[in-house]
Amino acid sequence: MPMASSTTSTGSEMRLEMARTQVQDINRSLYDFAMPEVDAERYADGLTPAIVRAISEKKREPAWMLEMRLEALELYQKLQMPANWGPSTKGLDLNHISTYVAPNAKRTNSWDDVPADIKETFERLGIPEAERETLAGVGAQYDSEIVYHNMRESVADQGVIYTTIEDALTDPELEPIVRKHFGTLIPMTEHKFSALHYAVWSGSSFVYVPAGVTLPFPLQSYFRLNAQGAGQFEHTLIIVEDGGNLHFIEGCSAPKYNVANLHAGAVEIFVGAGAHMRYSTIENWSKNMFNLNTKRATVGTDAHMEWVSGSFGSHVSYLYPSTILAGDNSDCEFTGITFAGATQDLDTGCKVTMNGKNTNASVNTKSISKDGGINTFRSSVIIGSRAENARASVSCQSLMLDDMSRSDTIPAMDVRCASASVGHEATIGRIADETVFYLMSRGCSEGEARTMVVNGFANPISKELPMEYAVEMNNLIKLEMEGAIG
């Protein structure tokens, strides 16, 4: 497949437009506030066997987990960054990153027992309110540890388990389940930062949905990295047994600092036969964040996997949720949107491996770039030799708001079955002046007109997000587009 790549062209009309319109950056005050690091347990910067052992000992882990960590550390030190792949990670120096920062707080299932400053953080982010109104359970991580975790009794009564991997490892009934699944979908050999993740992972979500159980409300984990010059390495492990149904929501944010922060989490999802899994993510990392996250799901016969992803932050992102359609008649959907502004280079997309017969994959993404922001969409579709009658459709649309920004589309198709059908389409463009003039003739200001166009472009994605995140995304776009006409 050819690569569709474009940068906006210059011209007298566009220069005139840029001269009269000053577009503000996102007002990130909702996320950029930081709390003082008081009485936190902070390990030394860098990465050594002693640090890895200290993390494992603090968590009272079984011997096999420590062995896995040390093996990953050795591998991390040997692996090189992949050449000619993705944006530069220059500026990220692990010798100046603390891999473990623990707040002075014990995990609790009552917001009243969360320390005042941490509770204020999550109150400002709206997590307790969302739990009261729309969620079946919440886990809240602050820096390297979960500080709050709770689930409705009615959900627990159905046999659903929602806890941390740390706690599951100390439970004789759950530890074998974790050991069987942990690290099997995303091997430490995947890339340099997956090895780093397995060496220092901390903070986590473990979800087990029994066969035939449907959760009436979503579960949510929220990850807040407050410490500067630190990394966050949470691990999410989800198992949905045959016929189960789960919607899991992930939220992420961090304040802005003048030093690099790192996020290198991992998500492993196992979807049983006839089960349905939806994983929604909104990432609002600050613009000093290197977001190097890895996510993967395996899907059984007649099962469905759905990814909904919104990326609105970070300095650099590498994010490609991956789905393995292992069972016959299984299918997956990926719906994503990215918004890249000044100093942002967001390299995102998805991967699908289709091995079962009559499998189906649908990918629909949109990206918006402004102020020199760079958006790169990568897709990888692999159709195995046994995947008879597999169907895959990939669609990506890019909107650039000025002549400084860039958008690239890089699809890869590997088809090994003659009866398979694969399609890819990509469009890259700008807001048409005629559209802006028409809306202005109907009483809109220029800023309002452009915001309406961008919201209309993003609307098919926002409709797939949980309500509170759809509102949040629309507010971000409105703030992004607000400007002064001069």
Question: What would you say this structure looks like, in words?
Answer:
This protein is α/β, with parallel strands linked by helices and 486 residues long. It contains 13 helices and 28 strands. It is globular. Strands 1, 7, 8, 10, 11, 13, 14, 16, 17, 19, 20, 22, 24 and 26 form a 14-stranded mixed beta sheet that branches. Strands 6-5-9-12-15-18-21-23-25-27 form a 10-stranded mixed beta sheet. A two-stranded antiparallel sheet has the order 2-28. The chain is 25% helix and 36% strand. A hairpin with a 2-residue loop joins strand 5 (137-142) and strand 6. It has one domain (4-485).
* Apparent shape: globular
Number of domains: 1
Proportion of helical residues? 25-40%
Low-confidence spans: 1-26
User: In total, how many beta strands?
Assistant: 28
> Could you report the average pLDDT, rounded to the nearest whole number?
86
**How many distinct helices?**
13
The major sheet is characterized as: 14 strands, mixed
Distance between the termini: 44 Å
Task: State Rg.
Answer: 22 Å
| Strand content range | 35-45%
- What class would the helix/strand composition place it in? alpha/beta
